[in-house]
Write a structure and sequence with these properties.
Layout: H1 5-24, E1 26-30, E2 38-39, H2 46-63, E3 69-70, E4 77-82, H3 87-94, E5 110-116, E6 124-130, H4 133-146, E7 166-169, E8 183-188, H5 195-203, H6 212-224, E9 229-231, H7 245-253, E10 257-258, H8 270-273, H9 276-279, H10 284-301, E11 309-310, H11 328-348, E12 358-360, H12 365-371, E13 381-385, E14 407-412, H13 430-442, E15 448-454, H14 460-471, H15 481-494, H16 496-515, H17 545-563, H18 569-603, H19 609-633, E16 670-674, E17 696-697, E18 704-710, E19 716-722, E20 727-729, E21 733-736, E22 742-749, E23 759-760, E24 777-786, E25 789-798, E26 801-802, E27 811-812, E28 817-821, E29 827-829, E30 835-840, E31 847-852, H20 862-868, E32 871-878, E33 882-890, E34 903-908, E35 914-917, H21 925-933, E36 936-944, E37 948-956, E38 962-969
Parallel strand pairs: 2-3, 2-4, 4-6, 8-9, 8-15, 9-10, 11-12, 12-13, 13-14, 14-15, 17-25, 23-26, 27-32
Antiparallel strand pairs: 1-7, 5-6, 16-18, 18-22, 19-21, 19-24, 20-22, 24-25, 28-38, 29-32, 30-31, 31-38, 32-37, 33-36, 33-38, 34-35, 34-37
Amino acid sequence: MKFNSMHKLFLCLTLLTLQFLKAQNSFQMASKTSTANIVIDKSDAKVVEIAANLLANDVFNITKKKPEIVNKLEDYAIIAGTIGSSKWIDKLINSKKIDVSTIKTKWETFKIILVDNPFQNIEKALVVVGSDRRATAYGLLELSRQMGVSPWEWWADVTPEPKIEISITVDNTKIYGNPSVKYRGVFLNDEDWGLQRWAALTYEPETGDIGPKTYAKVFELLLRLRANTIWPAMHKSTKAFYFYPKNKEVADDYAIVIGSSHAEPMLSNINAEWNHETMGEYRYDTNSESIKSFFKKRAKETANYDGIYTIGMRGEHDSPMIVGEDDTDSQVKLLEKVITDQRAILKANSKKGEHKPQAFVPYKEVLHYYQSGLNLPEDITLVWTDDNYGYIRQLSNPEEQKRIGGAGVYYHTSYWGRPHDYLWLNSTSPALMWEEMLKAYQFNSQDLWILNVGDIKPHEYNMELFLDMAWDMAPFQNNTYLKTHKQNWAKREFGEKYAEKIADILSANDVLAFKRRPEFMAWSQVEPVTKSGVTELSQFHYGDEVSKRISAFNELLEQVEAVKPNLPEHRKDAFYQLVYYPIVAAANQNNKWLYAYKSKFVAKQGRFSATAFAKESEDAFNTIKAETDYYNTKLKNGKWNHIMTMQPRFLPVFDKPDTAIPASTNVNDLGIALESYQMELNNKVINSYADVLPVFNAYTKNTYYIDVFLKGNQTLNWEAKPEASWIKLSQSKGVLNIENPEERIYVTIDWNQVPKGENKKEAPLGHDYQLIPPSYKVNSAINFSSNENNHKVGVSVFNPELEDLKNFKGFVEDKGFVSINAENATRKTKGAEANWETYEGLGYTNKVAVALPRSAKSITDASEILKDSPMLEYDFYSFNFGEVNINVQAIPTHAFFEGYGVRCALAIDDAEPEIIDFQTFGRSDAWKQNVLKNAAIKSAKGIVNKAGKHTLKIWMVDPGVMIDQILIDFGGWKDSYAFPEETRF
């Protein structure tokens, strides 16, 4: 298309108009020579001054020019203030220069407005107006965000991008807030090995503890993340928050609300503050007056400060409350008396007419009391908890959702306790946290969200994600926004060029951690502490799960090493903290154990490579040690010394593992081991059964491996020759020596060359997968030679030409099972109220099928299931028939509330639906295994009445159930940690 002069003129005018409009809506925070000063009212809240200074420092860090904080009007300035607390803001409202009707009286809501001629002789001003003191502070720090400053500027050393000028675009119509969750914050917990030592020895040695200086930096971070609440550190290693009078004053300066955990009633810290010698026993049935005196003291001390008071009582050290009578009725009555007395104390020590926010946490045995009829006043906020491993135990039912006090959630990304701690790295799936908190939000838990972040580091991304959701849940209603959020986060921290790559690295690590957290890799447990156990990962079935996990982590290590040198120098320290150390530590924690398991396994086969695997395990341990030392002593010249530990609680999983070496190296022989066999090939043993690879299936296009290895410490040449041209090897010859003691050869089939079996309409009936009739099976071999020794490995190919499979789209039996990823349904049928959808980022396959919406009713009657429930259908083809086990793996969530379960129904073909339930109760062994593995597996029997085409059907029984994988087992599934890879046609 050619443009004439009129077209060109029109385009030029359009461009000029757009540029003019942009200029009209932009404000220059800093020019080449100067900056806009920040005008505040001295009578406004202290947090407004704090936020103004943070913004001024941010401008300076970018431009090396610092705005002044002034209390008088100036031309072309930023005017910031709170409605009713700033004379400048109130004058602008009264003169109708700004309209605050959309934010006035709302909670933590602000506007950023570009105002022409706001006052006489002032041409233009950028006005930040807040409905309350925190809103104004958030508004000032929103300008920092728009300048490109990360909330982690100090806490993760995300140095701002240098610029000569700063301009921001202003949308006068935009309203920031009202937040989705009223109180949003974190719990500093299990701080003994990181945060407390860092504060005491590095950052605040003058206090020798987590004191006001440290808390000021924590509160700054919370403001930048638009949070407003903290549960302070409370272990015995740290003195109680109120031990230091300045702590509460700093919290008030930063407008941070102080709360306390389920074990700390009335803002008290029983661990640190209860003195048995002077106060007696901590039990309410025999010593209530002393306990009430303690509560009164704290209520008076905090009367003029923002606080959320935990109501109720537990015992010392997070233990059950001690009562005289060991029956539930007595315990409930005593707890009701505790609550009545606490509320009376609060009322007596509050300003007239003021209601202090109160929270009740039904955690552990307290949940049992609540479920047993505890009379809880309506204005108290119910704070539900997860099971410590990321799965919320229950939420408010429809009646509870009507409570005036509302509800909230206390959630963990760090935990000390049974069945095993995870206190070191952030290994909680962001997608799981999103799914659980979205569920909580949808059931009206919107009043208080607290995230247990341990030492803050290295929980940075999950902490920000949690608080971003709490600030504005709207974009997070869609699962796809999770990926966008992570990419935007990486873009802000590291620039656009590597943002997608970094997000992908972190996501791949999340998937691996979901399958098994790094802290769980020793297969040990705690309380009591057990020694390291035997891995459930198979070392010879399904491609060798141990080696596949090693490969996955080594690939991540390569990727993160490739990105690191290409980043700008001023972002490398941030990359180290936010990406590099978490990935390197997780990878080497896995490799440390995985290589140790390999050394023990191959040593039994006499492989010299056991020595090499032992060395790899030791190297991984030493890498963790070296990187942790760098984090503490060299990063930012020791700024973070003592913040990071590689062995919290000194548990066995953090030790250097035991390894093994071969019994003898005084041999000179070639060893061969095949996939699916625990023992190596031995041609000297008749019928050794370890001399034939698993059957290659034309419909699944298998790949199998053969390991060739050195049985001594001599050099050996080896060669492999297939007897058929259609057998393809990844390597056909090589040299083994002490530097290269073993090699893995991958065997595939050229399906264009392999002979076809008989042309039949249907499959052979009722035959074991290893006993397929000769007319369907093609046999050949691979000959290995070395040092005049010869070995033969059998190759069998199942390659029939079946009419039924010519246009088949679905899943096919292979080696006696059908393996299915739940998201890959052949068909989906909508239900009366619900449907099956796909969530990304969850499960072993990184996708799950989930029944939504969660508000749908449960369907338990078989006839109603068939009629009204949404259905997933999976077409599959079997070569066998008879009774099968249908194994279904789900995400181990809990029922929403009483009357629901975590159920689905299933059937093969036209059989009656059978209901299975993934729900666990308490701390049962099933629950322990589920949370260690992030998987719940239930089985049902089914009948495949003939070889050929069939359909597995899965119906929703309860909404919210998330199906990960399915395995239809004809008897061929061997031991493995995860289901075998999908047998998709």
